[in-house]
Amino acid sequence: MLEGIKIEVYKANQELAKNGLVTLRWGNISAKDENTGYIVIKPRRTASALLRPDDLIVCDMDGKILEGTHAPTSDLFTHLEIYKAFPQVMSVAHTHSKWATVFAQAGKSIPNLGTAHADYFKYDIPVTRTMRPEEIAKDYEKNTGRIIADAFTLKDPMTTPAVLVKSHGPFVWGQSIHETVDNAVALEYVAEMAFYTLRLNTDTDMNTYLIEKHVQRKQGGRNEQ
Amino acid sequence: MLEGIKIEVYKANQELAKNGLVTLRWGNISAKDENTGYIVIKPRRTASALLRPDDLIVCDMDGKILEGTHAPTSDLFTHLEIYKAFPQVMSVAHTHSKWATVFAQAGKSIPNLGTAHADYFKYDIPVTRTMRPEEIAKDYEKNTGRIIADAFTLKDPMTTPAVLVKSHGPFVWGQSIHETVDNAVALEYVAEMAFYTLRLNTDTDMNTYLIEKHVQRKQGGRNEQ
Amino acid sequence: MLEGIKIEVYKANQELAKNGLVTLRWGNISAKDENTGYIVIKPRRTASALLRPDDLIVCDMDGKILEGTHAPTSDLFTHLEIYKAFPQVMSVAHTHSKWATVFAQAGKSIPNLGTAHADYFKYDIPVTRTMRPEEIAKDYEKNTGRIIADAFTLKDPMTTPAVLVKSHGPFVWGQSIHETVDNAVALEYVAEMAFYTLRLNTDTDMNTYLIEKHVQRKQGGRNEQ
Amino acid sequence: MLEGIKIEVYKANQELAKNGLVTLRWGNISAKDENTGYIVIKPRRTASALLRPDDLIVCDMDGKILEGTHAPTSDLFTHLEIYKAFPQVMSVAHTHSKWATVFAQAGKSIPNLGTAHADYFKYDIPVTRTMRPEEIAKDYEKNTGRIIADAFTLKDPMTTPAVLVKSHGPFVWGQSIHETVDNAVALEYVAEMAFYTLRLNTDTDMNTYLIEKHVQRKQGGRNEQ
Q1: A223 contacts chain C (CB < 8 A)
Q2: Which of A58, A122, B70, C79 is most buried, judging by how many CB atoms fall within 10 Å of its CB?
């Protein structure tokens, strides 16, 4: 079932690892089939390097497993909440990529300090609120997805397709698997640059006209250099 | 047309990527043919890894496309302004290399703190002024080239062949394609070292006699070690 | 003798190097055979890249060499003290991996600031006390093992399977060779992130409920993503 | 002439590059033949990646070329001064390796903060004094060697086989080519760790007993792990 998407998700997992965003077994990517609305996602406890397309799991939006012999990643219910909250999202990735996770651990959003950021993300990358004890105790992964949705009540999730889960790490999405991988790579790159930019100049800021220009330039194709 | 230059520009694109200066599709390099004055440049939306010599575009100094089936990079008009302002320049590269971009985002020039810098760049690497709203709204890429030229009204662009466009990233040039790639690699390396040098010692400074010596030593060949 | 374990230890040495945790000849890993209680460990003065399974040494818990033509690593007696103090430990690794060593040199423990840490280590990674002159003068390596054991008098060494030897570097352990390599990789990764997190936000802290959740989630399999 | 040494110096040049210590054409290594006292050194303007054993130059201690069709590296006279000042030195390397150069540019010595440092270098790595204008104007490279020798008037150059030339970069040496490459790799590694250690704890210090222990342990073999 959904063999084409499985191969794409499989390749995207390799891409995340190849771009240095995944260490050990930390990280997973999923995609939504536009016809059935089913989700293809990585099984639990599998290093990306060992994953094969047949190992991928197909489930519905309630998390019911439709195909696959392994258990899905424990982050499945976070992915599902993101798909439910943001209907335009066709793919979701979760990594512990270093610099995005540093901002997540610090509980700080990633400020938009340059055109590289604006080419992919219109606003600062938001950080979720602290989870309440009862949200952690029960339905932890689902509640992680809900606080992600909460972080976008005032923002369009498609113009700024990433979030930092506090004390945890980034989730990234896009309108395609390919775009989601690109957004994950771009997020890590702009996070690192933002960190060092703030060390050099705590007062630096980006011209809002310049942000608008680069957000517009990407229409019809991301970062058209 | 200009097949030899196309192969060189093609290879230079690979070199930029191999040296870690290009991520995703961020970055481009062009060259000027000394006989015709035509420019060879990368098409838009092409990862360096996918580029082939035949994909390159030939245009004249006004940006009129003479050969090529793709649209040129949106940065074409910035490249053209640099060629117009600095007639000795035979090649231009634009990257979002990490450390040079950090200085660009911080709006800070890269100070000349060591012989590695002086072997390639006589002065601090300047940062352009903030663009005005009307410069961003219309002819943005052309105006980016103009503020680059403005940054060199008091400096010889050939002894310090690089600039940081504020909130954006570096542009680098040279008297040949090979020299331009070298300058882009050197810029990133000295930017990183300058960043950390300032963290260790905010008062550090380089002997101007030593700068002169290394600027002279490179006559007849860059960094003759 | 113990050929199967030798091959595993040999491969684990390669894994440490491949993950960037070992430079030059700095680093070694050992394993305990559950039947005999014998230890398999790396010989002295051998770069991991040159090591072959047959070069590995077998000794008993008193350090008596049972097999092997080379001398064992000088760190052997530190490994043995860890096995004696923590009976559940089946494998021990010592590296000078960069970020863990930075914390060791600074004499600072690595704080638990995110789920990536909690997935592998329940508590902060402790740092040993300063060694006394007489502990350095005689039985230095054995005493290094003893101050490691001292650092766990109030902590379960299996829920936080790593320590920083002050002014020196990390020792890491686990219930298997594979788990020990994973713990060494995870330690270095969380050490780097902790360093930068503290630079961004010196007051950051992790919800203890979240730590407990991730410590529990790993039961039955580490970091089940 | 000296074909065996040429092959070793050739390989050592590759090793420096492979260990990330050499970028572009920055860096060179030489060796002294114990029978003739002749020096084998890299030619000028050659990237390590392009160098072949036959390209290497043989000269005497006065810099008179005995064999070789290329000009020697402009740093030749610095190498020669080091061989003259420190008779036990059999090989010298010069790089612009990043972290050692950061300390050189900051004009700061690299403090001995851990056993990794003490395993290779007994004392802090010294930084040379500022050169006087007349030392730069005439015989610059020779004078660079002289201020290196000056930095060791109170220190044994063999127990601390490296120096930082202020505003420039490191020179490293050893009793063999192999040892010199190891020292260059170790220098860069301990420089980076010292930088970050000081960021975490500006008051950190290493037990002098521990330094002595590790200096002694290396007798008969460097870092006998």
Answers
A1: no
A2: C79
